[in-house]
Amino acid sequence: MTVAAAAILSMLSAASAQQGSAAADSNPAVSQPADQVSPVASPIPAPAQTPDAPQQSRDPGLTAAETAPRTLSAMTPGLRELSPWSMFLSADIVVKAVMIGLAFASLVTWTVFIAKTIELAMAKRKLRTALNATTEAGSLAEAQLALGPRRSILSSFLSAAMRETRLSVGISTDSGIKERAASSFAEIVRAESRRIRLGMGVLATIGATAPFVGLFGTVWGIMNSFIGISKSQTTNLAVVAPGIAEALLATAIGLVAAIPAVIIYNHFSRVTKGYLELVGRASGTAARLLSRDLDRGTNASLARAAE
Fold it and tell me: Residue 265 domain-assigned?
């Protein structure tokens, strides 16, 4: 009986094991351990986004203040750095031509400034040296000997006086010689005035016209900006600002070229006036020396010496 009971129990346990394996094959979720079962998530449709709405960050760790700059940059993709060089490169061809012309005018202004400064300084130094050398001269011949080979405007006055004396041999009236010599001196002064003022007309032209040339470039650039606004059909300041800034750059360059030109022109006007006063002193010195020679009655001897 004991052996029969044990055989019956073994048969029942084998049958229950077979039923358990069949149930596990029919339901896989039951056969896996509890810690390995993956939850089944029901698919949830994503909310539809409109084309105009910016895509928000899905990072749950970011706050609204941190996501605002990303949203703004996504709304304004055309923003760029507005430096003078980048504005020049992005400007219209007409505005570029205006800027290049004004930059060249500014270069001419500073070139004239450097050249005229050196020229006026050397001319004034030479003329002062010549006047100091002829202070003690009592006649035209002595003055020429005192100057020697050095050339200055005073040498031109002395040469004109000697030439007029030589050409007036045989004329008894001294007043006519002085009058003709004064006429020669006036011609020399006018020629020297024209020479020393060379280049100042360029400064005056640049100072008077550069602001208006820059304004022309600004008007042209703003006109193109308004045309772009009408084509893009937007009044967003981020879209309009670059074109207006490029246009205003032309006016800024025009003022940069005009203001120094006006200041330098006024400076040279004062310096040139002082130099022409020295030229007038040289003319008076030559006239006094000629008058002394004529009063001494050395007209004939001077003519022979000049020959």
Answer: yes
